[in-house]
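Re: that chain you flagged

S.,

Sorry for the slow reply, it's been a week of failed gels. I finally had a moment to sit down with the sequence you sent. For the record, here it is as I used it:
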Amino acid sequence: MKTVIIQKEKTVNGILFCLFLYFILDFFLRFPNRIHGYGALRPTLVAAIFIFVLLFLHAGILKEKLKGDVVKAIGILLLYIFVSSPLVEYQGSFYRFYLVDFIKAIVFFYFTILIVDTYKRQLWFLGLFISCQVFRVIEPLYLNMTEGYWGDRTFVSGGEFANRLAGAPADIVNPNELGFVIVTIIPFLHFIMLKRGFIIKSLYFILLPCLLYALLLTMSRGSMIVLLVGAWLILKNTKYKLPFLILGAVLAVAGWSTLDSFTKDRYLSIVGAGKLEQNAKTSEGRLNGLLGEFKLGMSRPIVGHGVGTTREAKYNLTGRSQASHNMYGELVIEIGLIGLFLFIKFILAIKNELKKIDVGESNDPQIIYHQNINEICKIVLIMYAIYSLNYYGLSQYYWYLLAGLVVVNNRLMSDRFKELEQNAQLTVDSK
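Prediction finished late last night. Pasting the structure tokens below so you have them in one place:
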């Protein structure tokens, strides 16, 4: 009789995983902004240091996880950024002000691939991430409905302003950033919650209108475009196309009926049907701003001005300090054309990673779960790539977290598939 031994991969310490979950909570829910005196303890930095120390102690079982095309792509990008940093325009600003924010974003990739090493841990990791994102939307929406909170506004005409929903006072995200959170979390909710029992499905149908209503209040036209792209991609993947279309139509009509004339005109300006001059001007201004960012980037096209220095570079050129409205323009400004090429290679590595594993049809619940996560990541990747035309991203967490999730999901799905094959072989050999 042939004996098949199923070897389980060694996992990191549970304390390390709990620290990572705390890091996620602290990062997204902004505890220092909510608890007086808490920020003085530098909790995020302390948690990150503890995680690094514990990862070093687990170095013997982590070497194999630092392999693969995505790890290589991000490694080359990071090597280029730090090797070229002495040559950038504002290297002092990068080291003094922006390096920490960049590291906080990058660690999401490495912490995810090194710490989320089991199916149950992936469930906890994703559950906490999704819950934090939903909370970031529901909190300002609740404040809006109970206290009249908005958080931001946009100029209309004649000295008048229209309110726009932004993040909660402790969150500090503008309307476009809040819109980004909303539209990119919907695929996770759709594919995960609709696969669950009646209570979870009911919660999904309660949350979805709330999220979409909050999106309308942000007046984020870029988010609305990406929502439509995401909805189309979800529609392609669902078996229930007619119910999905009917639900979408009902929500669209209900949401549209709640908007004032200025907000309606702002969304109509996406397709050139808006009548108000101010909305048309902001659309035109966004395009001019995009071209201006690439023009600014070409003033130092090789290595750029330095990570995080877009505002500084704009101020020195135009006298106005603004965040980037386009990630690809931001990349040229901050890390040059070489950096842009390497970052696109990193995105393509994520895309290729999503194609690697195809286990076909399976009745195993864990395999089905991993396949659903794979589909979510494919949709979110496209949404990220499109939204990056309207959003910055080099020092933001979202590309790195997505990359880590894709690598982990493929690894766990591959391990599970091998385990099922070995179990089947073990059953045959025992007969």
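What I noticed first: Residues 398-430 form the longest helix (33 residues).

Talk soon,
D.
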